[in-house]
Write a structure and sequence with these properties.
With 336 residues, the chain is an alpha/beta fold. It is built from 15 helices and eleven strands. Bound molecules: zinc ion (ZN).
Length: 336
């Protein structure tokens, strides 16, 4: 559709850093063995998911690979698992380890060793010692945004700083990454994470990203594909279509996902196609409009369910614009 095509063309013309040589696809899992949750997969299914990529020649990379650019073309998969569910323990030792995968675990310390469904500190330490990377995922898993910053500075600091400190003390390592709870963030969140010495942060906006992180302008808004029961097949097909163009897998419902947050970000940061002042101005206003649209309707879908993703995925058509009032209200309240 026109909008996304134009933007895609604009991004290419702008000379955005290329994901062709060092693109990374980041997956976001939550839990395993819970039949009642659309965010949970059986251990057997997880094994099939990892085999799916392994058999197609994808490399599973670690956090340090992503950071330092130890990537191979575009077929790089980085696995993240949010929330510290106790099932991660079995998933790691049964599946991830077998494939040499070092997943990043997004942990919010409030539940560790306290809730029956959560990992214990001992298990977490064991996973960390075995090679899993650990990211702070807030302290209490709150919306870490401007509203929290303004209304409860202590809670905001707990989410961003205390979470890091506790994990570092308990696990004896440096915490370098942050995973936004619900994907929610504001500019003040990003600035705070930078000041605290984080090297990057993860959202739940679909897309491919760039490695090494030092050349990635979107390193505090790293995209991830949320893997859920209803969407995993179309998501995997979309990933394959993007990163492994020879593969013939095509699914109509994923047509339209033409641009990645990384490209948008690059477009936003370098919004001119030639050096003439006029061109800079006109491109800037065009991209401003695009960015506004995308921020309001797409980038902000931090907590959106897969329904919205599939709405997005179907096409950038008028249906997409009919976002319900409830979500609009949520976004107004919680996002920049
Ligand atoms: Zn979470």
């Amino acid at each position: 559709m026109i909008l996304s095509s134009l933007l895609l063309a604009a991004s290419i013309a702008l000379g955005a850093p290329s994901v062709e040589k060092n693109g990374v696809t980041i997956l976001c899992y939550h839990a395993f063995n819970n039949k009642n949750s659309p965010y949970s997969f059986s251990i057997e299914d997880l094994d099939k998911h990892m085999a799916y990529f392994a058999e197609r020649g994808y490399n599973f990379i670690s956090w340090s690979d992503l950071k330092d650019g130890k990537t191979f073309g575009r077929k790089n998969i980085f696995v993240t698992v949010d929330d510290g569910n106790k099932s991660v323990y079995e998933a790691y030792f049964t599946v991830f380890k077998k494939y040499g995968i070092k997943p990043m675990l997004g942990i919010y310390p409030a539940i560790i060793g306290k809730m029956h469904y959560a990992l214990t500190w001992k298990q977490l330490k064991e996973l960390s010692d075995a090679g899993c990377d650990i990211a702070a995922h807030g302290y209490n898993h709150l919306y870490v945004n401007q509203k929290l910053y303004d209304s409860n500075r202590k809670a905001f600091n707990n989410e961003t700083a205390l979470s890091k400190k506790i994990l570092e003390e308990k696990l004896g390592l440096k915490i370098e990454a942050f995973i936004y709870p619900f994907g929610v963030r504001s500019q003040v969140t990003i600035e705070t994470l930078k000041a605290l010495g984080y090297a990057g942060a993860f959202t739940i906006v679909n897309g491919e990203t760039l490695s090494p992180l030092k050349i990635n302008h979107a390193r505090f808004e790293l995209p991830r594909y949320m893997i859920t029961q209803p969407t995993w097949k179309s998501t995997f097909a979309a990933i394959l279509r993007k990163t492994n163009p020879k593969d013939k897998t095509r699914i109509a419902s994923v047509e339209g996902g033409l641009f990645t947050p990384g490209m948008l970000y690059a477009a936003e940061k370098k919004p001119h196609t030639s050096d003439s002042e006029e061109s800079k101005k006109s491109d800037l206003s065009f991209l401003d409009k695009q960015m506004k649209f995308v921020r309001e309707n797409f980038m902000t879908m931090g907590v959106a369910t897969y329904g919205y993703y599939s709405m997005w995925n179907k096409t950038m058509n008028s249906k997409f614009l009919r976002l319900d009032k409830k979500k609009d209200a949520f976004l107004k309240e919680n996002m920049r």
